[in-house]
Amino acid sequence: GKVCIYLHGNAAFCGRCLCHFGQLTIIFQAPVMIITISQTASNLKQSYDVTGEGFYYSGNAGSVSRLQPITLSSKDNTIKGVYRPSKWTSHLPLCHWFGVPNITREFQLSKNGQSHGTIVLSKHGFLKSNYAIALDGGESFHCYFLSRASYNYVSIYRGETQIALVETYLSVNDYKYTHKLYLLEEYRPYADVLSFFVIYYASYHFARRMHMTLGSVKEKSWSASRNADKYDPHWRGKHFPEENFFGKTDPFDLPS
Fold first, then answer.
1. How confident is the model at residue 173, as a pLDDT?
2. For residues 191 and 156, what is the distance between their CA atoms, to the nearest angstrom?
3. Can you tell me the distance from the alpha carbon of 41 to that of 89, in angstroms, rounded to the nearest whole number?
4. What is the rounded distance in angstroms from the CA atom of residue 131 to the CA atom of residue 198?
5. What phi and psi values does residue 141 have, to the nearest 5 degrees?
6. What is the pLDDT of residue 130?
7. Which three-class secondary structure state does DSSP give residue 74?
8. How far apart are CA 170 and CA 147, in angstroms?
């Protein structure tokens, strides 16, 4: 039959005889919001469908250049990013090795016509670089990227806490990439700007403009970074263990 267990602090007792079961460790898992960013057009256009539970946007990146404006729009909201040229000192080679940060790829963000923040790439040491998102409301996020075999990962942090992960499978058809954004539920209010970041990131790292390729493309990639420890290979499995990893339940079961 059924036995009730009574908890007192972190100790457990049998409901029949009150014998002590010992100490229990209770684990609470935070829900995760999953957003899929699917590229629907490549070559002459860079278009995306951005979907999640109760979440739908469409995105467009520059069709000719990665410096063109990027937009992410839904029925009620539009986020737009416009490229802003960096200071000339940010383009000096190797100066970031000596403690002078290079700030490049800056996009000024607006939401529904109002200033919203910035996204930049910061190089601040040998093999040390990350993207930074600074919102006008004071919130900031740091995004650390890494490639391992058939996958590219971006670990997104707020302060010292990882709040999101972006996974990209590098084998594609017609250079139309699919990205998955895993976001802890408590950070749902930032789902739109983080989805915008994924399109911005894809525009710089994956978009193929004016290409002549049709069919499937398989790619392997490894990157070296002194921020590699920011990628936790168990983060996604810990927070959403039953998620299908691009057709695989085990992220370490890499395709050949």
1. 82
2. 12
3. 36
4. 11
5. -135, 145
6. 94
7. coil
8. 9
